[in-house]
Amino acid sequence: MKDEPGFGIDEIAALAELPRRTVRYYIQTGLVDPPEGTGRGARYARRHVEQLLQVRKWQLAGLSLERIAEIMRRPDADAPLPPAPRRPGTVEVWSHLVVADGVELVIEPGRARLSPEQVRALFRAVAGFHAGIRGQRATAARGTQDRAGDGADTED
Asked: Is residue 136 domain-resident?
């Protein structure tokens, strides 16, 4: 399938369901490749429509144009979205899970790349591990007391 220029700006704007002014802005900022030719002779190809649709998809998902530009510059742009780099003023939502008194698990599922089900599984595993350790400590403490008691009984 060739990617020959064949669309005018009105056509690609209609295909991407965007105003012409927005299409021009995306080209100006580098989010979309420039057309072949200039002025009224400018022609756009399918790749331009695909780029516009990608930008539109990420914008509808709530990403900033700056973040969209970062994503589109990646060679693996179709791969899962990596976590956004942390910058001053970044707003993040963290899950704070209380395992026991004094034991808490704090996680940002998006950065950890965990689904809600995986976060629940992680929490259950940590809670189970904590309970196991507490059980071992309690058993060990009882064993120490029993041994101390046994020694005291034999000395009489």
From this structure: yes
**Residues 107 and 94 sit within 8 Å (Cβ to Cβ):** yes
- Do 66 and 107 fall within a single domain? no
* Residues 6 or more apart whose Cβ sits within 8 Å of residue 2: none
The tokens for 9 are 């700006």
| Neighbour tally for 12: CB within 10 Å | 24
Domain with 62, as residue range(s), is 9-73
Q: How many CB atoms lie within 10 A of CB 54?
A: 18
29-78, pLDDT tens digit by residue? 999 999 988 888 889 999 999 999 999 988 888 888 988 888 888 777 56
Q: Which residue has the higher pLDDT, 82 or 25?
A: 25
